[in-house]
Amino acid sequence: MSASLPPLPEASARHANSFDGLRLLAALMVLFSHAYPLRGIVEQEPILRVTEGLSFGSIAVAIFFAISGYLVSFSWQRDPDVGRFLLRRALRIVPGLACLSLITFLLVGPWLTTLTVADYFRDPRSWRYLLNVFMYPVQHHLPGVFADNPYPEAVNGSLWTLRLEFSFYLIVAFVGWCGVWRLRGSAFAATALSLLALVGFYQVDTFRDAPLFRQATLVFANAIPFFGGAMLARREMGFARSGWLVAAFAALLALSFGTVAFKYLVPLAVPFFVMFVALRLKADFSRTGDYSYGFYLWAFLVEQCLMRLFPSLGFLAFLAWSAAITLALAVLSWHLVEKRALQWKPKAPPKPV
Q1: If exposure means fewest CB atoms within 10 Å of the residue's CB, which of 21, 150, 251, 297 is most exposed?
Q2: Are 9 and 275 in contact (CB under 8 A)?
């Protein structure tokens, strides 16, 4: 069919490694950004101070979604089978999440709760925390845990993105199963519609009063880089990865800084910047493992624990200890849990000769 996509380009190991490095950088950005609200000084977050609602963390999450959309699009095109596709995605997300949830529930909760251990385990909210393994819905609290922290009670505020990311996987699987995903322009259309929806929710006063306004804006703000990354993987725009387009986006961002257009341009520009860097970066960041996901999973919890145990720790020391402890946990998570789980990923059937 003339409307179908061109043959799938091969992604080299070099490209995968550069993505690993960018994801680890994004995870560090999230840790840095979360340090401000978790220490009770959210208004001092550098980017948040000069923009409307953007932070290092929100930009980092956009980077994660852009890379995810890019790689997931490759995965579907190579093996467009719904069952195998979703199983691969689940094996990447669930084992590390299950390990984190179990350790949080069994060790961190009883250790740091203000309740007695017996009362903690009698409280049904403690046991419901284990449902985070299923991603829908997310429970951020454990009874009595971090109740006196500057950012009270939230045990792991990063988990909401996993539910959203898996939802995007389900969308890809569904439209792929329907045959829509193979059509040229489908990812471009999804990106454009997400951008229009985000603008509409922010600019139309009726939407601002809707009960799920914040959730809707988060969905569309992150759908833009996800489907933008998929669009670049599928080469729906032949010029999209050129240097002049990245330069044009940089100029637009500079000119729109301080205006309402800036927050719409950032999620749209992120996949173009990410792919421009990732596909030119030669360094191998994953010789010993991909620690970005584990780092992202554990960072919030580690920072909350440090605030609970050492509330007088200086900001730079807090960042250094948080990063070091989180990295150690991420290394363990990769080698003991994530890498082993990925060995069960189903292989695509051989192509007919």
Answers
A1: 251
A2: no
Which residue bears the tokens 């703000």? 221
Give the pTM.
Answer: 0.91
Contact 310, 320 (CB under 8 A): no
pLDDT score, position 7: 43
> Looking at the chain, how many residues does it have?
353
Instruction: Please name every residue paired with 183 in a beta bridge, in sequence order, or none if there are none.
Output: 4
Candidate ranges 2-11, 198-207, 339-348; pick with highest mean pLDDT: 339-348
Record the tokens describing residue 223, joined without a space.
Answer: 């759908």
Residues 150 and 307: beta-carbon distance below 8 Å: yes
Q: Are 162 and 93 in contact (CB under 8 A)?
A: yes
Tokens of 87: 């199983």
Torsion of CA 326, 329, 331, 335, to 10 degrees: -160
Top pLDDT among 29 and 216 is at: 29
Examine the pLDDT at 136 and tell me if it is beyond 70: yes
Checking if the pLDDT of 36 tops 60, the result is: yes
148: which 2 tokens?
Answer: 């006196």
pLDDT bin (cut points 50, 70, 90) of residue 353 is: low
At 116, list the tokens.
Answer: 């007695």
Burial class (CB in 10 A: 0-12, 13-18, 19+), 144: buried
Contact 31, 299 (CB under 8 A): yes
